[in-house]
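Format notes (please read before filing issues)

Several people have asked whether sequences and structure tokens are stored in separate files. They are not. Every record keeps both together, in the order shown below: the sequence lines, then the token lines. Line labels are part of the format and must not be stripped during preprocessing.
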Amino acid sequence: MNPNKQESFQHFLDNNINPQQKEAIIHSSGPLLVISGAGSGKTRVITARMTNLILQHNIHPSQIVALTFTNKAAKEMKERVHQFLGDAYNLPIVATFHSYCLLLLKKYQHLLPFQNFSIIDAQDQTKLLQTVLVQFNEEKLNIKQLLYAISSYKNSKLVDNDFDISQFPYPKVFLQIYNAYEQEKRKSHCLDFDDLLVYTLQLFKTNKEFKTLHQHNVRHILIDEYQDTNSIQNALLKEMALDSDNVTLAIDSICAVGDEDQAIYSWRGATVKNILAFSKEFRNTKTIKIEQNYRSTQSILNIANAIITNNKSRSHKELWSSKKSVHTPLYVECLSEYQEADAIVAFIQALQKKEPLNSVAILYRTHYQSRVLEEQCIKHSIPYKIIGGIQFYERKEIKDILAYLRLIVNPYDRVAFLRVINTPARGLGQKFEEECINTWNIHSILPFTHIPQIMATDGLLKGTKLHAVEQFINLYSGKQPTCVATF
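Then the structure lines:
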């Protein structure tokens, strides 16, 4: 216990938050649903709640898990908790759903069908699915559509008993393609991002000892943006928090923070039903509404409140703000995208006389809409910066390096092997890939280092190509993974 930190935190509770925020922060046990409107300080509530458990209730940080949807949000929460606690305390676990499931799977990988697995991303999935479609002579099928369907199917079949396969594209061959895709991943000891949730949920459902141990270790769970959870995430949370009958709370508290009015991810499987049904699924839930907005002026909130009332599937709330403004929202209806760009640029030029340009932001729905706006900004010499572009880990050279490293951790990773065996170019073409896959299918229990020698024995690899592959294999001589999963 640190009296100075406790005193400082108590001062924060007494002077820096509103009554509804404080009520949510100090609620100590049982299910808690915090309906936190836009700009109402939900991150402050979550981080202060974790801090309160540690400082005021002497809960060990390792017994607290906070789950969110982006690494950025997780990083921000950790930083805020650290500001409260300083260096004298360890931090609670704050992670995305996928990161936390990966943490569990790494720690308990002895319970999985295979160990030392790799994680494949969307590009790897595309490559793998292309290989599968060749087997079915279905190369012309829409891969993007298939991957979306595979993800939807995987996220639904574990939690939906009335699942209808006919709703998916190519229903006659979909299950065959899905099963072949899953088999190819297993051969490579690979998991995709959906598998992280699926395998973790299966552990909770099928291994009572694992579930009991997790509930003994983790006594308090907090979830950010609960309206964005999908069916499998909701099922996972119930397994983490409820007893074996999924009826009684088996941990000390679960706190869901969200706002059904901000649900925008139904296209990727999120369902607002989860937050609306929270109080039914977790008995004796206490519900707290936080309606004071600290971000916008009342004139903006009046419009937002008027629009959202058209949604009948919501809990009643009305955002309010003490912030005043001399400006009122302006609605301009244009006849074309070019007229719209002209109006926006004219507005910026007028504003530029009073405000710096870095206080202005243009929001658009899709990236293609930026082209006309950029043209107008260039035409009128208005400097701008586009936020977005290719992320660091999506760059080809970074993905190539990571694929090299993945083979150290998982020597059965076919996707990584086929990505880098000819990067940089080693004179190996499509025929080599096909013969390599065929050989590996026959000898599926062997790591990648053994396959080229078998191909050479079979007369499939010789001369300069054999020498090039042997040099590649030698890169891995004596290399072993050194990271250890921690909890």
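For reference, the curators noted about this record: Residues 66 and 94 are 5 Å apart (CA to CA). The chain has 21 helices and eight strands.
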